Amino acid sequence: MTAARRALICLPTYNERENLGPITEAILAATPPDVDVLVIDDGSPDGTGLLADELAAREPRVHVLHRAKKEGLGKAYLAGFDWALARDYALVLEMDADFSHDPGYLPAMLAKAEEADLVLGSRYVPGGGTVNWGLGRKILSRGGSLYARTILGVRIRDLTGGFKCFRREVLEAIELGTVECSGYAFQIELTYRAILRGFRVAEIPIVFADRRVGQSKMSRRIVLEAIGKVWGMRGSAFARRPADKIGTPGV
To answer: Is the pLDDT of residue 109 over 80?
Structure first.
């Protein structure tokens, strides 16, 4: 990766002290020296933020953004995106801090970003999948993604995943200040906005594994709430505004 393609991985945390050290080490080992990590901590009471500061003091590729309180995953990512754009990173990635997203996939995502504007780590393309999920969670996740695809009229197989790599041009064009969703639906909204603006979206297969340590923050209520927001995305002011086509949507 050239200097002009510097990348930043946004890693939101809330009570992830046990995971933060290992996941950061794994990310740094899997990526070249011009890929940095931004830990976005929402005032974790377990000391995750303090540990992040210690890691950053030892490793120049690690940075920390402290937020006063927990406001949802979407708000944390938006703060991280703003931080990245202000520092001229060419690529901005998002991933979970609990090893649900394997850092081993990062090289493939970065490579795919050479030809796509938004790269999605997808559970629902050939070669992708999930591990340690019960039948109910599988049905809820697949059904939610299928529902969103149908309502929004897009071809992306995994609209709800949170393992992504954006070119900075995508984040600049999708009007981050007007993003309405913060929870599970946040992922759907970002990808939908990128498609509406004509960016090239590509999916690569990943296997999603349940967290190794700690308690999952996902719930049935969060998923069902997100499904209800899909209609609002389709009728939003952003969706109604015309835009110059930049690429081929839904690649």
So the answer is: yes
Residue 229 is predicted with a pLDDT of 86
3-240 has which fold? Spore Coat Polysaccharide Biosynthesis Protein SpsA; Chain A (3.90.550)
For β-strands 35-41 and 201-205, DSSP reports them as unpaired
Contact 65, 39 (CB under 8 A): yes
The pLDDT tens digits of the residues spanning 131-173 come to 988 888 888 888 888 889 999 999 999 999 999 999 999 999 9
Model confidence over 188-225: pLDDT tens digits? 999 999 999 999 999 999 999 875 554 555 556 666 66
For the cut 70, the answer to whether the pLDDT of residue 70 exceeds it is yes
User: Quick check: 12 and 79 in contact, CB under 8 A?
Assistant: no
Write out the DSSP string of the chain: --GGG-EEEEEEESS-HHHHHHHHHHHHHHS-TTEEEEEEE---TTSHHHHHHHHHHH-TTEEEEE-SS---HHHHHHHHHHHHHTTT-SEEEE--SSSSS-GGGHHHHHHHTTT-SEEEEESSSTT-EEES--HHHHHHHHHHHHHHHHHHT---S-SS---EEEEHHHHHHTTGGG----STHHHHHHHHHHHHTT-BEEEEE-EEE--SSS-----HHHHHHHHHHHHHHHTSHHHHS-----S-BT-
